[in-house]
Amino acid sequence: MSQTHFGFQTVDERDKARHVRGVFDSVASNYDIMNDLMSAGLHRLWKRYAITVAHPRPGDRVLDIAGGTGDLGLAFAPKVAPTGTVVHTDINEAMLREGRNRLLDRGVALPTLVCDAEQLPFPDGHFDIVTVAFGLRNMTHKELALREMNRVLRPGGKLLVLEFSKVAAPLEKAYDWYSFNILPQLGKWVAKDEASYRYLAESIRMHPDQETLRGMMREAGFGHVDVHNLTAGVTALHVGIKC
Ligand SMILES: C[S@@+](CC[C@H](N)C(=O)[O-])C[C@H]1O[C@@H](n2cnc3c(N)ncnc32)[C@H](O)[C@@H]1O
Questions:
Q1: How far apart are CA 90 and CA 75, in angstroms?
Q2: Ligand 1 and 34: CB distance under 6 A
Q3: Hey, whose CA ends up nearest to atom 14 of ligand 1?
Q4: Residues 79-83: what's their mean pLDDT?
Q5: For ligand 1, atom 15, which residue shows the shortest CA distance?
Q6: What mean pLDDT is predicted for residues 132-137?
């Protein structure tokens, strides 16, 4: 039986998705406020940068994987209008529901679908742009998910992976202190959920660093992969082109 990690714990591979679902079921209703608090709003700038690099055009077909509460979908929708589409997906119904309600409140209706990134229900070569923001880290079989993202892109299409990454060495100590002391406390006070925010800090440490992820994307079929470090590597944007 294969094992994998869930934060710093070792769990049976078959159980990881259930543990991850527990985290996002629990955080869904406080997700947006916690994101703003934990990152002091920086996540908005990282996402805005990803959208600029994606360079969506009217008519493009965009797939947002692990789309959660819909930040990327909301930003892409006006850029691909009037003939393009943005498909908003996530494996977690609670997150997707928060996202869909938020989009509808802003007058944006997108096709919304519960689906697992490891088994995408779309034909080969269908999308111009695929995005996954802060989602890959939570997936059990990242290689499989990356291959699926490659499969559904058209040749020349772009995958954008925005994810926490390896912070620059001089900041490591301060970042560790913040992650393992402040984040779980914020989770406890605001979301009444310390454990999920401890998982967040642990899962970031277990996620492949910039160069490892670049290699994984090359392996998954992306002929060219650029890495953009953001905020000294707290986050990295990996851009893969399907050649
Ligand atoms: C940290 S949230 C990111 C939400 C949104 N993209 C954002 O940047 O605000 C991570 C999301 O990944 C989703 N997720 C985890 N595993 C997944 C999988 N195998 N397939 C699709 N989504 C997944 C979770 O349900 C959760 O909504």
A1: 17
A2: no
A3: 66
A4: 98
A5: 138
A6: 98
From 5, 24, 86, mutation site for ligand 1 pocket: most ligand atoms within 8 A of C-beta = 24
| CA-based torsion, 171, 177, 182, 184: positive or negative | positive
CA nearest 49: which of 238, 215, 213? 238
Tokens of 163: 């994810």
Ligand 1 contact, 74 CB (< 6 A): no
Token couple for 229: 């470090």
Measured in residues, the chain has a length of: 243
Residue 229 to residue 197: CA distance in whole angstroms: 23
What is the Cβ-side half-sphere exposure of residue 5, based on CA atoms within 13 angstroms?
A: 13
Q: How far is 171 from 234, CA to CA, in rounded Å?
A: 9
Count of other CB atoms within 10 angstroms of residue 25: 14
Predicted pLDDT at 31:
96
Report yes or no: 209 and 132 within 8 Å, Cβ to Cβ. no
**Ligand 1 centroid distance, CA of 106 (Å):** 21
Find all residues with CB under 8 Å of 220, minimum gap 6, and list them: 143, 146, 147, 149, 150, 240
pTM over 0.90: yes
Tell me the mean pLDDT in the region 129-143. Answer: 98
Q: What six digits make up the tokens of 75?
A: 């930003």
Which residues have a Cβ under 8 Å from the Cβ of 52 and sit 6 or more positions away?
A: none
